[in-house]
Design a protein that fits this description.
Bound molecules: guanosine-5'-triphosphate, magnesium ion
Distance between the termini: 25 Å
Number of strands: 9
CATH architecture of the largest domain: 3-Layer(aba) Sandwich
Number of domains: 3
CATH superfamily of the largest domain: P-loop containing nucleotide triphosphate hydrolases
Order of helices and strands: HHEEHHHEHEHHEHEHEHEHEHHHH
Strand order of the largest sheet: 5-4-6-3-7-8-9
CATH class of the largest domain: Alpha Beta
Helix content: 40-55%
Largest sheet: 7 strands, parallel
C-alpha cells in the first residue's frame, strides 16, 4: 500500500515534540483494549492491539477538535484528512479525534440520495442544497462511490454540476474517499458525517450511484433514503430492484417537466402500486412518490417539507433515535467483522496454509467446512 504524501506524517514532524504517552507500557505480549467509542463508530486498527504502547498527540487533536467545533473549514478538512489516512500510525489519533467530537455530533438530519447515472442527482443536490441554505441551514454533501475503488478517484460530488452550491459558505462538498473496499469507503464517509455534524452542518447529504451494494450501505447510515427515478418508468419500473424499493423512504421522479410531466404522473401511479407490495419499514410512514424538476427548480421545497414531516413523525413515535441506535450497533458489528477478517488473513499461521487450503477447496479435494475448521484451528493456535 502506498501512502499519500499527507498520510506520511500528519503533524509535519511535530509528532516527536508533543507526544504524550497515554498508557504505561504493557508486559510483553499483552494486548490493551482500545478506548470504547460512544456510538461504536470505529476508527481504531485492530492490528495494533498487540502493539506495545500508544502515543497520542493530544494537544494537536484538541486543537483540531476545537477548530471543527467552531466551524472552521480548515480544521474540518484537516480532521477529515486524518480520518481518511491509510497510515496505520494515524488510526489511534483518528479514533481519539472522533471520541472528542462524538458528543457534538448527531444534531442533524442525514439524507441518503441515490439513483442511476444521469437521473439528475448532482443537479437535484445543487437545487436542494441552495433551497436549504436559503432557509438558514448548513449543508454537507458527502459521497459513497463504489467506482472510486477502481478509479482511485471520485466521480461524485462533482463541483461542476454544483457550481452555485460549491461557492456557498454554508455548503461543504466532500468527494468520495478512495478505499480498497466499499466497507472502507463507507467507513470513512460515516465518520466524516460525524465530523461535519460536530462542525455545525445540520443537513448531511450522502450521495451514491444506484449500483449494487452501495445503496444498502448508504441506507444503513442515514435517517432518510431518497431514491431518484426517471419519468419513463415503463412496465418494468426501470428494472428497479425490490431490495431498493424496500430501503427507500420516498421515491422522487425527476425531470418531470413539459412533455415528461404526463409520463411522470403515469410512473408515479406505477410506483404507488408497486410500493403496496413492499413491506413498510415503519407503520407510521407511507412511502410517498413525488415529482420534481431539478433543472427548473420545481418541486424542491416539497421534498424538504416531506423530509421534515418524516423526521417529526419518526421523532414523535420514538423511531428516529431507535433507528440511529440500531444503525450504530449494526455498524459496530460490521466493523468487527471486517477487522476480524483482516486480522485472520494476516495471522501468520493462517497465511502459511491459506493458499494451499483454498486450492484444496476449489479443486474439490477439501470440503469448505473442513477447510474453514482447519483455518480457524490454525488461527486459534496463535
Ligand atoms: N430536463 C431535465 N434534465 C435534467 C434534470 N435534472 C438533471 N437533468 C440533466 O440530466 C443530466 C444528468 O444530470 P446529473 O445531475 O449530472 O445526473 P447524475 O445523477 O448526477 O449523474 P452521475 O453523476 O453520472 O451519476 C444533465 O444533463 C442534467 O442537466 C431535470 O429536472 N430536467
Ligand atoms: Mg452526479
Amino acid at each position: 500500500m502506498r501512502l499519500r504524501e499527507n498520510e506520511k506524517d500528519f503533524f509535519n514532524g511535530e509528532t516527536q515534540r508533543d507526544q504524550i504517552p497515554l498508557n504505561p507500557p504493557l508486559p510483553k505480549g499483552e494486548a490493551r483494549i482500545p478506548p470504547l467509542e460512544k456510538g461504536g463508530q470505529g476508527g481504531f486498527d485492530p492490528l495494533r492491539l498487540s502493539v506495545k504502547i500508544k502515543v497520542l498527540n493530544l494537544t494537536k487533536i484538541t486543537q483540531i477538535a476545537d477548530g471543527v467545533r467552531s466551524g472552521n473549514i480548515r480544521s474540518l478538512a484537516k480532521a477529515i484528512t486524518l480520518i481518511e489516512s491509510r497510515n496505520p500510525d494515524h488510526s489511534t489519533d483518528a479514533a481519539a479525534l472522533l471520541d472528542n467530537l462524538l458528543p457534538d455530533s448527531g444534531n442533524s438530519i442525514r439524507v441518503g440520495i441515490s439513483g442511476v447515472p444521469g437521473v439528475g442527482k448532482s443537479t437535484f443536490i445543487e437545487a436542494f442544497g441552495m433551497h436549504l441554505i436559503d432557509h438558514g441551514h448548513k449543508v454537507a454533501i458527502l459521497a459513497v462511490d463504489p467506482s472510486s475503488q477502481l478509479s482511485g478517484g471520485s466521480i461524485l460530488g462533482d463541483k461542476t454540476r454544483m457550481e452555485e452550491l460549491s461557492r456557498e459558505q454554508n455548503a461543504f462538498i466532500r468527494p468520495s474517499p478512495t478505499g480498497d473496499t466499499l466497507g472502507g469507503v463507507a467507513r470513512k464517509t460515516r465518520e466524516t458525517m460525524l465530523l461535519c455534524e460536530a462542525a455545525g452542518y445540520d443537513v448531511i447529504i450522502v450521495e451514491t450511484v444506484g449500483v449494487g451494494q452501495s445503496e444498502i450501505t448508504v441506507a444503513s447510515m442515514v435517517d432518510f433514503f431518497l431514491l431518484l427515478q426517471l419519468p419513463n418508468a415503463g412496465d418494468e419500473l426501470q428494472g428497479i430492484k425490490k431490495g431498493v424499493m424496500e430501503i427507500a423512504d420516498a421515491i422522487l421522479i425527476n425531470k418531470a417537466e413539459g412533455d415528461n410531466r404526463p409520463k411522470a404522473e403515469l410512473a408515479r401511479g406505477q410506483y404507488l402500486s408497486a410500493l403496496h407490495m413492499v413491506k413498510p419499514k415503519s407503520s407510521h410512514w407511507q412511502v410517498p412518490t413525488l415529482l420534481c424538476s431539478a433543472l427548473h427548480n420545481e418541486g424542491i421545497g416539497e421534498v424538504w417539507q416531506m423530509i421534515c414531516a418524516f423526521s417529526t413523525t419518526m421523532k414523535k413515535h420514538d423511531e428516529f433515535e431507535r433507528k440511529r441506535r440500531l444503525q450504530a450497533s449494526d455498524w459496530m458489528w460490521a466493523l468487527v467483522q471486517e477487522d476480524l477478517k483482516d486480522l485472520f488473513i494476516r495471522n501468520k499461521n493462517v497465511a502459511a496454509m491459506l493458499e494451499q487450503v483454498q486450492l484444496g477447496v476449489s479443486e474439490g479435494v477439501t470440503s469448505p467446512s473442513a477447510a474453514a475448521r482447519r483455518l480457524l484451528e490454525a488461527f486459534k493456535r496463535h
